[in-house]
Design goal:
- GO terms for molecular function: manganese ion binding.
- Disulfide bonds join 31-46.
- One of its GO terms (biological process) is plasmodesmata-mediated intercellular transport.
- The structure is a single chain.
- This protein has 218 residues and is an alpha+beta fold.
- Among the domains are: 54-176, Jelly Rolls; 186-214, no CATH class.
- Helix content is 18%, strand content 27%.
- It has helices at 5-20, 180-185, 193-200, 204-213; strands spanning 74-79, 93-99, 104-109, 115-121, 123-129, 135-141, 145-148, 153-157, 164-170, 178-179.
- The strands form two sheets. The chain has a five-stranded antiparallel β-sheet with strand order 1-2-9-4-7, with no helix packed on it. A five-stranded antiparallel β-sheet has the order 6-5-8-3-10.
- Helix 3 packs across helix 4.
- The protein is globular.
- One 2-acetamido-2-deoxy-beta-D-glucopyranose is lined by residues 67, 69-70.
């Protein structure tokens, strides 16, 4: 028979793990972010509840397509805690991604969230790569849904003839994005050329060529 300490230990482990699977849970009804506060905590401090209004929970920035006339042919419009301060401590956010024909949302990861997308318009070739280096991919079209597990590198490409768009949902108020190419080749200060040359098994000239084409991340 197991010692009584074992179930307690498992319960404790579960409690700890369940808190690391997504954003920490909230401790009150709302905690509308005071984005102007200089106090830094994990998340944002709450503004006084007598200064909270419906606008803190509202955003109309996803209703129109984003401009896709850029070098990638895609644009991500985020709807996270930075635009919707009422999302602070709630553990969810959205984004809209628009794609020109041929446009790509290049390989990237969200360190703090799983993503699930709903296709609003067009069709997309989507995929993610597991830690075993297996590509899981397929085509999705209007009305369909696809999931990108937390932390895994993923992408979407519009190989259709018309524009495409998705609404993406995340289980984090601020999922964060690391775009692989920009992270490695446009970091500031830069990642040393010799590190990238060795990692990609190419010459430093090729590294410099890639760096010159990727503007530093803002
Ligand atoms: C209420 O919010 C406004 C606008 O964000 C700010 O200027 C004001 O100082 C706030 N008042 C209080 C009492 O926090
Ligand atoms: C993209 O299109 C918009 C709207 O037509 C325009 O305002 C913007 O300057 C364009 N951007 C580029 C990089 O061409």
């Amino acid at each position: 028979m197991a010692s009584p300490a074992v179930p307690f230990f498992l319960l404790l482990l579960f409690a700890i793990l369940s808190n690391t699977f997504a954003d920490p849970d909230l401790l009150q009804d709302t905690c509308v972010a005071d984005l102007s506060s200089g106090v830094t905590i994990n998340g944002f401090v709450c503004k006084p509840s007598n200064n909270v209004s419906a606008n803190d929970f509202f955003f109309n920035g996803l209703k129109n397509p984003g401009f896709v006339n850029n070098s990638l042919g895609s644009l991500v419009t985020a709807a996270n805690v930075l635009m919707i301060p009422g999302l602070n401590t709630l553990g969810v956010s959205l984004a809209r991604v628009d794609y020109a024909p041929g446009g790509v949302n290049p390989p990237h990861t969200h360190p703090r969230a799983t993503e699930i997308v709903f296709v609003l318009k067009g069709k997309l070739d989507v995929g993610f790569i597991t830690t075993a280096n297996v590509l899981i991919s397929r085509t999705i079209k209007v009305g369909e849904v696809f999931t990108f597990p937390k932390g895994l590198v993923h992408f979407q490409k519009n190989n259709g003839v018309g524009n495409a768009a998705v609404i993406a949902a995340f289980n984090s108020q601020l999922p964060g994005t690391q775009t692989i190419a920009a992270t490695l080749f446009a970091a500031c200060p830069p990642v040393p050329n010799n590190v990238l040359a060795k990692a990609f098994q190419i010459g430093t000239k090729e590294v410099e060529k890639i760096k010159s084409r990727l503007a530093p991340k803002k």
